[in-house]
Design a protein that fits this description.
There is one protein chain. It is built from two helices and seven strands. With 114 residues, it is of the alpha+beta class. It has one domain (10-110): Thrombin, subunit H, CATH 2.40.10. It has a six-stranded antiparallel barrel.
């Protein structure tokens, strides 16, 4: 399958916890992110083809209580290299310029220098 990403995935050195902001349910840990999408790893599979309101705590970026809220659609899910975990890919929706700047800053602060 041809890779349709226009931006390189940026893997992070620290896994941020991601929650469903409507239910406060923990969904998984953020593995990589671009302004177009992200991947979570979790102990349970996440249903695909579903819209989610995602939230992660990013107070370390601003030294104050701060969350990044994202609308995303789960696009695919598969077993992780570790068979006890699942990876799920999300396509971000409605990313405005301020959110893109926050994502870029997140990548700068937590991304591997690859």
């Amino acid at each position: 399958m041809k890779n349709r990403r226009s931006e390189k995935r940026r893997h992070l050195i620290y896994y941020l916890q991601v929650f469903n902001s409507e239910t406060d349910q923990f969904l998984g840990n953020l593995v990589d992110i671009t302004p177009e999408g992200l991947m979570l790893t979790s102990e349970r599979p996440i249903e695909t083809g579903k819209n989610f309101k995602l939230r992660m705590n990013i107070q370390f970026l601003a030294q104050k209580e701060m969350h990044l809220d994202l609308n995303a659609e789960s696009r695919w899910s598969s077993t992780d290299v570790n068979p006890n975990y699942f990876d799920t890919g999300f396509r971000l929706q409605d990313v405005d310029s301020e959110t893109k700047l926050i994502i870029d800053h997140l990548i700068k602060e937590l991304g591997f220098n690859d």
